Amino acid sequence: MARALVKDAQGKDVGEITFEQTKQGVLVKGTLSNLPPGQHAFHVHETGKCDAPDFKTAGGHFNPQKKAHGILSPKGRHHGDLPNLYVGQDGRVQFDTFAQHGLTVKSMFDKDGSSVMVHTKEDDYHTDPTGDAGGRIACGVVEKAE
């Protein structure tokens, strides 16, 4: 089990995301608020750092197998590629999804850790390496949880 406490670029709490290993993959659950309404790309990133305001210290998408980006990519996809989030007009989103493409809770705790990122735009599920997801608006370092 792992979790990430997510903050925006101003350091305000946005919510929490949990990661639970199952036989079918990783169950990713979260409740986030104070986000702009609309679709937002959502990824696990390769480094466990979230230095505001741009969160560039999180690195790129978690991609230990060096695959192309995107759920629709015919050559596979990054382990950190997750479905877009749909944020309501009230700025809130609650979600449950499965990561079934190589991501494991254990793999997120490599030597430099991992983080989870919310982007300004939706992921187009194809453009390599970022899905044309735009800037980074919220980030959380993945930590071990009981």
UniProtKB/TrEMBL annotation:
Residues 15-142 form the Superoxide dismutase copper/zinc binding domain. Its EC number is 1.15.1.1. CDD domains: Cu-Zn_Superoxide_Dismutase. Its cofactor is Cu cation; Zn(2+). Binds 1 copper ion per subunit. Residues 55-77 are annotated as: Disordered. It catalyses: 2 superoxide + 2 H(+) = H2O2 + O2. One of its GO terms (molecular function) is superoxide dismutase activity. InterPro entries: SOD-like_Cu/Zn_dom_sf, SOD_Cu/Zn_/chaperone, SOD_Cu/Zn_BS, SOD_Cu_Zn_dom. Keywords: Copper, Metal-binding, Oxidoreductase, Zinc. Destroys radicals which are normally produced within the cells and which are toxic to biological systems. Belongs to the Cu-Zn superoxide dismutase family. This is Superoxide dismutase [Cu-Zn]. It comes from Pyxidicoccus fallax. The lineage of its organism: Bacteria, Pseudomonadati, Myxococcota, Myxococcia, Myxococcales.
